[in-house]
Each structure stands twice: as C-alpha cells, then as structure tokens.
Amino acid sequence: MMIRVILPPHLRALARVGSELQLELNTTPTQRSVLDALEAAYPMLCGTIRDHVTQQRRPFLRFFAGGEDLSHDLPDAPLPDAVASGAEPLLILGAIAGG
Amino acid sequence: MSKVRVLVGTRKGAFMLTADGKRDKWEVSGPHFAGWELYHLKGSPADPNRIYASQTSGWFGQILQRSDDGGKTWFQPGTPPGETTGPGGMPKGESNKFVYDTSAQTGKPLTTHQWYDGTQHPWEFKRVWHLEPSLDDPNTVYAGVEDAALFRSADGGKTWQELAGLRGHGTGPKWQPGAGGMCLHTVILDPQHSGRIYTAISAAGAFRSDDAGVTWRPINKGLYSQYIPNPTAEVGHCVHHIAAPRSRPNLLFMQKHWDVMRSDNGGDSWTEVSGNLPTDFGFVIDVHAHEPETVYVVPIKSDGEHFPLDGKLRVYRSRSGGNEWEELARGLPERNCYVNVLRDAMAVDSLDSCGIYFGTTGGQVYVSPDSGDHWSPIVHDLPAVLSVEVQTLR
C-alpha cells in the first residue's frame, strides 16, 4: 500500500523532497512502521522526528490525520483507514513555539 | 594573494563572508540551512576546504553538516547524497547521533548532574555547541555538546564517540547548567603539547587532559565566584570562554562570568587580570595571532543586562597580557547600541596585519584589519550571531 506523508518545511529541505511524499508499505501502517519506512527511504531524517536512542517523538512535533491529533496514540496502534488507503496523508507538524 | 573566509553561525542560518587580504570589500553568501540555528562552523587547519557545521533545532534535534569544497556544497557525513541505507552498511543519519558512552570498557556510568534547584538530573543530549577540527587530520574533529560532554569523530564526522573520562572523572555530579544550559563550549587543542586538550563548561569550569582526552582533571585553582556556595570550589565556576595563543605554551586567557583571568602554567593556577576594564563581565575573549600578550574582550554591563555599558559598543585590548586595557572605539556604535556578543562570536585571522572579527546578537559582524585600531561592519542585518570563525587562505 502507498502511504502519503507531509513533512514540515525544514524537514522537506533536509530530505530534499516536495510538499508530499509517498512510501510503499508492506505491513500494517502505524506510526512506528511509517516512520521506519520514512527513515529507511530518507536516512537524513533519522533523529529529527523521534529521538535516536529512545525513539520517542520529539516534544515539539505532532502527528495528525483526518483532522485528528494522533500524537499520543501508541506507536504500534494502526493509523486511520483513510491513511492506510491513501485517501488522507499523515501530517507531521512542528508546534508553533518560539520565534 | 591571501584571502579570508569568515564563517558566521546565526539563529536562522549560516553565512560566509569572503574578502582578499585588504579586508575592505566583502562577498556574502547565505543563508545556508535557512531557518535553522547554526551554533558553530569551523574549518580544518589541515584542509581549509573541509568545514564542519553544527545545525540544530529545538524541533528537529541535531544535524551535523560537512563541506569538502569550502562551503559551496554540504552534506551529512553519515548520509552522503544519493546513498540510501545499505544492508550491513553504516546506519544513515549516524553523524547526527551523539550517545553518551556507558560501555564497560571506555564509558562511565551515566549518572546525574546538578539541576537548577540543587536536585540531581539525568544527562540528556541537546545540541553541539562547538566543533574543533584536529590541527593535522581533516577527518578528526571534536564536538563540545550540551549536556556537557566531549565527543570525537575520527571518520570525518560520520560517527561520534564520547571521551567519557571527562564527564566521568568524578566531579560530574557537581556540574550544573548556566543560564544557557549545561554546555561544553570551549575546546582548545594545544599545538605545543601533543595530546593536551583544554575544555570549558558552563557552569562547571575548565578541565585539562594530557592524554588526548582519556583522563581529565579540573583546572580552576585561583578562580573566585562569589555566586556559588564555596567561591573557590574545585568546580562550579561559570567559565564563558578561554583563548590560547598558538605560539606560547601554557599561556591561557579566560573570560569568566565575572573576571578576566590569566594562566601561565596551562591552567594549573589562574590570576585575575581585569585591571582597568569598565566591567569585567563578558563572553568573548581572543588573542592576537602574532602577539601572545595582546588580548581582546568585549565588556558587557552585567549578568542581568547583557549589553554594552552606556549603549556604546567597545572592544578592549591589552598589549600586556591583561591588567592594562585600552578602549577601541573607532568605527563602532557610539550610542543606542544594546546588543550582546556571545562566547564563540570573536575570531582572529593570521595575516601579517592581524584581523579581528566579532558578531553581535543584533546581526552585525565587525572587522578590524589592523589589530583593533579601526573597525567597520561587514554586514549589518543578519539574524542574531551565535559564532564567528575565520579562515586565512593563502
């Protein structure tokens, strides 16, 4: 299945990708499996979305899909059907903080 | 003809300023890594085309960048352009990975350090404050990080290993963060003594290794900090920066939170040389490239008011290794100037007429091509300047 992901602008520049990217996934789409696939395809993003060691989501990043905040879902919880079907992208957003 | 290349790290990207030896007409490139904090950039003394840069973000963490062509192009050394993760290959993004060493062989237990409220707090990596390339090997580079520790890469920045003897030598649990965090901000590789490294940490103090970073000891004797419970404690001093002349073994100058200090014995002891400075609070300190007793500081009003006295930006120079200081004002703002000059934001070139450079939190970078007698701005309106380094290209 093809998963759509939208990165925040700074990470798009780092990965040298456009506003939306697509990942081929052969397993149940979860936060963990999508991020694993993302980091495999774009290894320069390792450590930027989740910590290198703890694999915890960075505090100022949030995950959204279909208007829902998924940031506090468990990493292995299945993503919404709309993300799995490709109808909706998984949005990775930077919190509005600082200057 | 000789050239200079000034590497400027700012809150919102990196800039490179280049000029010929006259240093009166400048070309500006940047922003590189626009929108990111560039804490520090520094070129290799062994290969001036090799530049390392610390790109950081409160949102996205630490990125280590490297250029092999003098800053024209950049890449993450653990993730070369065009490569993807290979089976059994190096994990990509590894160059951004700074993990405290807790291995039985080389590491130390990752204990805790003192927190602002006096309780103990776990060590947590936040960012790279300072990059110090080896004097003779372009692929070897040191990184001073927050929370305070020293890392080393011997493969051009692809992978990093902590020199855990510093954090683990015994005083670590007494270290505490300064207002800017618990950062290791100064790394000096002694060209005269093979294997000697100096580091400084806010707010722990200065430390020295004589065996290439394996073992360490505090070198804070003579420092007096009235703001800590024991003003002459072995550690706990808020050292802001240290500078060392390349040509004079064992001579060091320090800008402490308050006090400008001098050591003639490699840090074994320090004496105050603030002398007639109008205020001895400040962040930067540097030494003339050819005159080891000529020292520069930028006095800042106080720890509560991080700007120059009376709104007049002034560099002070001592030609006698401290105590007697002269005001350098030609070309600097005379009034209404309320910027700061941060600890890594001063540098000197090594041309015959030594150039002095510094950057401000107001986004100005100033140059004096004549050892401080005359100043002019190279740029006026950059983002807040975090660091300034200069390469002399011959």
Descriptors for this entry?
heterodimer, A: 99 residues, Ubiquitin-like (UB roll), five-stranded mixed beta sheet, 22% helix, B: 394 residues, mainly beta, Methylamine Dehydrogenase, Chain H, 29 strands, 1% helix
Describe it.
The complex is a heterodimer of chains A (99) and B (394). With 99 residues, chain A is α+β, with helices and mostly antiparallel strands. Chain A is built from 3 helices and 5 strands. Chain B is mainly beta and 394 residues long. Chain B has a single domain, classed as Methylamine Dehydrogenase, Chain H (7 Propeller), CATH 2.130.10.10. Chain B starts with a strand and ends with a strand. The interface between A and B is medium-sized, with 26 and 23 residues.
Summarize the structure.
The complex is a heterodimer of chains A (99) and B (394). Chain A is an alpha+beta fold and 99 residues long.
Count of alpha/pi helices of chain B? 1
Mean pLDDT of chain A: 93
Count of the separate structural domains of chain B: 1
* Biggest interface pair, counts: A-B, 26 and 23 residues
For the largest sheet of chain B, list the strands in their spatial order: 3-2-1-29
Question: Terminal Cα separation of chain B, in Å?
Answer: 7 Å
- Indicate the low-confidence ranges of chain B by residue numbers: none
Residue fraction in strands of chain A: 15-25%
The CATH architecture designation of chain A is Roll
